[in-house]
Amino acid sequence: MKAFAKLVAGLCLLMAALAMPVHADTGQPLLLRNVSILDLDGEQADLAPGMSVLIENGRITKLAPAGEIEPDTATRVVEGDGRVVMAGLVDMHVHIWDRASLGAYLAHGVTTVRNASGMPLHLRLASKIEAGSLAGPRLLTTGPILNSPGPNQQINHQFVTTAEEARAAVRSQHEQGYRQLKVYSNLTREAYEALLEEAASLDMTVMGHTPEGVRKKGMPAELPFEIAFEEILDDGLVTIEHVESIVWHGLRDRHDEAAARALAKRIAAANVPVDATLLAFYNLLRVAETKGEYLGRKGTGLMNPLLVATSQAEYDRWSNEDVPRNRAAFEFYKLMTKYLSEEGVLLVAGSDAGIFTNVPGMSLIDELELLEEAGLDRLEVLRAATINPAIALGEEAIAGRVAEGQRADLILLDADPTADLATLRSVSAVVAGGKFHDRAALDAMLVEAAEHDVGRTQANLVEALEAQGTDPAALGL
């Protein structure tokens, strides 16, 4: 299906990456002195102690032994005292409802996020962060989710059924300023094929759930999907989201190990990156296992209260779900993730933070621990949140590593995360777009992130619905 879109999308990503500006306001030059630089780019991780990192205009301009860089009087010097410096973490699947949550990501070492359900709010936030007038992770965003009516529809989706509707929706999103599209599982074949063609003509990229077509009674056990999973593999998707969706669509929800291994081989051969988001299902499972108590665990105060209020029916459902059946499903999702890794699929880390009970910031660390539990080695896990996203986004020339010429998105740690992933739960400091944030500043961001404005969140949603032609009043907003 539209194999040419893959080449076009890849070229567009590379061109965009090379042309990407750094923050306009990056403050004074910064020198991180006497640090240990963690390099994740080789077959094995390499830790180089006694180094200094010079940062100017939002870029890493020089790496050298600690005594070889003499700062001028305009440079801010931060003594590293041997702390580990590594590339900032990337969360490839989040849902941001209001600006309040931005600090929660930075406070956990997440320096780039990809928002997977766009609103006009996100375009404004991204511009302010890039300009240096707002502290937050670099914000990438898709437009509103494109879907057709069906069992997986949600009120914030932009619904298209025909080719004409799909083309119009893509053009509208492009005119609003979005350059990435997110597709969803109920999309009809006609709408999906049209939006792929329109996206290619406008140099827009596509990610998301794999579209299945119209869901009919008996699917998937008795009837195949209208759009076969294999048809999607040459469509140029930047990433396929959710390993449980791959099992559902690609295996017709069969927990067949041989078929899973074969499917992983086909995905690898097609060179399509996958964002497993194991945490998305794991948190559902934990709510079931604890009869809802998990919903009140530490950190959930960072969840947007409007989202929490509208999720009550889902909370109630999962508090009473079948635990053994869902535990077995989760174990298979981990196995599928392991197969994807073993067969050479490029895996990126995403948490689905911001929905259900997936807490902004800390959820990415949860996801990394689940990837390790699934069987990925420590280096693979860390690459999934650093180098691999840069590769998937066509940004490996400017992001994902601690190297000269790279964006200055870094985290400082008290210990080596290749020895213990738990180190990531106590970030010492963050450099985002060249700006230094110490632990005290990060803690202040966490406090602010828990101070929600429900009215402002509702206004964000109303604006988004109106922008995509939906009447908010008809939905009770």
UniProtKB/TrEMBL annotation:
Assigned keywords, A-Z: Signal
Pfam families hit by this protein: Amidohydro_1 (PF01979)
Position of the signal peptide: 1-24
Superkingdom of origin organism: Bacteria
UniProt keyword Metal-binding, yes or no: no
This protein's record includes keyword Signal: yes
Domain (Amidohydrolase-related): residue spans on this chain: 84-435
PANTHER family xref list: ALPHA-D-RIBOSE 1-METHYLPHOSPHONATE 5-TRIPHOSPHATE DIPHOSPHATASE
Name listed for the protein in its UniProt record: Amidohydrolase family protein
Species name: Qipengyuania xiapuensis
